[in-house]
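Q: Sequence in, structure out?
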Amino acid sequence: MVINQRIHSYLHKKSRAATLAAFRILFGVLMLISLTRFLVKGWVHKLYIEPSFHFKYYGFSWVVDWGNYTYLLFFIAISACIGIILGYKYRVSIVLFFVSFTYIELIDKTTYLNHYYFISVLSFLLCFLPLNVAYSIDAYQKKQVFKYVPAWTVDSIKLLLGIVYFYAGLAKLNSDWLLRAQPLKIWLSSKTDFPVIGRFMNDTWFHFAMSWSGALYDLSIPFLLLYKKTRPFAFLLVVVFHVFTRILFPIGMFPYIMICATLVFFSGDLHEKFLIKITNLFRLKCKVNNIRDVYLPKFYRKTIFVVCLFLGVQLVFPFRYVLYPDELFWTEEGYRFSWRVMLIEKAGYTTFRVVKYDTGNSFTVENSHFLTPFQSKQMTTQPDFILEYAHFLGQHYKKELKTDNIGIFAEGYISLNGRVSKPYINPRTDLLKVKDGFKHKDWILPFEDEIKGL
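A: Exactly. Output:
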């Protein structure tokens, strides 16, 4: 009974609509810059059009590139960003952005990054939130502006951000990160030419200081942002942390996205002042007589149910790795989509051999004939890539050799987080006889070491 009363009381709490409006504008601007950056740097052609073969997520082989029309996908997403910024036909714009952006990411899993996945899940959540009930063309056209929105609409964004940070921190609680300072030791040791602190980049104490502070930051920052007294200090940490990592590592727009996203933790008054300055700067004067109190979604209960279900999945899904045996960092089964950021450094090689069973003859495949250098690098260390590529080679050589009586065998050696290189794939396994799926890949050789932690 008490729990029901608390839930009922919480659902009647409200937050300033300006908070969601400011978040909408910043999100749209950052996505617009990010997508434009892809076009300007020529990455659309390099990553999506140039490759003759694309690695697919399991179950999404139907997602194909559009050839030169792939640019159209980006222009659709860019147009959606403009609609999001202006709050014009917001619901259509955000759905269009989610679909187009996610489709682009599904074309080739070679390009997978945690922050691309974050953008997809965040934009899905935003499809169900009223980011356009204030400071938007939609609101002014309807001549109906709302001062407040249900508090859970703002808190759902905060929770998603908290999951990203906190789960990234939990993932760092492992022996490689805390007791060996790996893989930061490898990466930082190559930054000795960095101004001022470059002289420390080879020092063991600096490697451990960075590792431990990184874990502490991720674990604590969501809670520091929640409390008003610690919020300014926490935001300063957010800025310093992300600017520093952006300087050290080539991680694109992610630092700026996280810096702007964490502003959602600040009070609605701050967002209101920000939006007033924006409207004054661009001389936007739109008088609306019908200013209403709290906006309630049309399908209120159904919307709450979808948002709660979505957030519940986000809370549980990253822990699917416990269903698999062997070392997660070695097999990478359940590694993606779990907010494990910059935890592994793998180096090595994988070669493929085509065997004709009727004659016993075999030959080695030249991977550069089929893959770009970037694809080849990603394939070498990731088992699902290796299996998918083996099946692609099987289809190719069955046609070229005009026989189905062939096998594809792989041999690889991998070094994980600075360890001695070890055999990775069972060279006696015909990968053409292995089906892709969610089952454990028993053709990956044992790690023969232990990484303790979550």
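The chain has a mean pLDDT of 91.
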